[in-house]
Amino acid sequence: MAESEERLLMLIDDEPAQSRLVCALAAREGWRAVVFDDCKTALAALTSDEGNAYAAVLLDQWVPGDKACDFIREVKSERPGLPLLMLTASTSPLLAVEAMRAGATDYLMKPVAPERLLKALRNATRVQAPQDELQPLAEKLSEKLDFDAMVGTAAPFRTALAKAATAARSHGHVLVEGEPGTGKEMLMRAMHASSTRSKTCDKLVNCGSMQANSLDSLLFGHEKGAFAGAFDRQDGLLQACDGGTLMLDEIDRLNLKSQERLAAALSTGIVRPTGADHGFKVDVRVFAASDLPLDQLVEDGEFSADLYNVLKATRITLPPLRERLGDIPALTRYFLSRFKERPGLSHHSIADSALTLLEAYDWPGNVRQLQAVLFRAVLFCDKEALTADSFPQLSNLLGDNPARGESKARGVGVLLYTDDGNLRPLEEIEADVIRLAIGHYRGRMTEVARRLGIGRSTLYRKLSELGIDNAA
Known about the structure:
The chain is α/β, with parallel strands linked by helices. 42% of the residues lie in helices and 13% in strands. Strand 1, helix 1 and strand 2 form a beta-alpha-beta unit. Helix 1 packs across helix 5 and helix 14 crosses helix 16. The longest helix is centred in the C-terminal third of the chain and has 15 residues.
């Protein structure tokens, strides 16, 4: 279905006020919402001849009460590929886990922010997502606000972090560029947390999730009566963040008129709300993120040269995950360690066969996609270790890709797990470590023993016990 065509959303909600709000928000993205008061009626409509017209379902958890997960399973049995989003006021992470296991595509907390709802709808119904991006879960972990939480040792990634750490301690505006999912939002938050303004106000706005007029009012504010519907005066975020930091995600999607207005405000330090005959002096620092290189957009006439010049003094580029494949094992173990902290989820290790599979994929959705794929695998894995079988969709995408046979990033290593996810015997692992050390140090047994932390006599005894040729 083309992006411009109207899409049909099944909304199951018995609260009229909330239904009207969701319908209005969904309409911004080209959705027409049909409201149902109860699950029985909704399921009947879904299984009727006209039911295939629905492109997504949004379920308020309070409508079915404790039977929410049962209803989700019924919907998924009838329409396996239909995206189903769950809206709830419950803060229980156990409910989120159970909803995901039942088949929910996403889980939204009330009161849901407009940009969060619209982003969830976009993600859930992205065209050809299963082929191109392994349609990700929008499940989010609460992120730590420091650079230590940004895992990776690849040279371009560490260079970007070092530049960001230096920029955090200065006072100028910062531009962060990189593909979607590379960690731009997290980097901006880490910079604010490490800056001299860390104790002051900070706000994050996604410029791609709002209409131009609404975004203008949000950023610059407006006077009462400035336009139709302006029933009250509203302060803008530029004014609210005076002395603090304003983070603008997807600034490349800000319209040109607003770009010029923002450039003037940042250059002069004066913000003039819509309809006001005077401005306000502000001291606000802007961190802006863009999915596309802004210099090219400026050259094509699609981005304000004035705003680009204001922002580009410190320009940081985060590399895509395909350019830092060696970081996948560390990122994987980091995410698995975070998942186990969530109620309802247990600790999982990962087998070498699974890591090899992860490293063979080029990850168009980058680190965010890796997190989503791992989260999905953990949800449905009953074993202690994730194996290649834990990622069936990824296996289907890669097919018989020759790169799957050996890790491109890790090279020769020591396998810890068998293909069924169980640990190999300690004796076998120890033998592999000794063989690896002998090969690495070219048979210099004194050096091998020293690096392994054992005496030469102990090393030779182990060679004999394990049946290892010291020329291995």
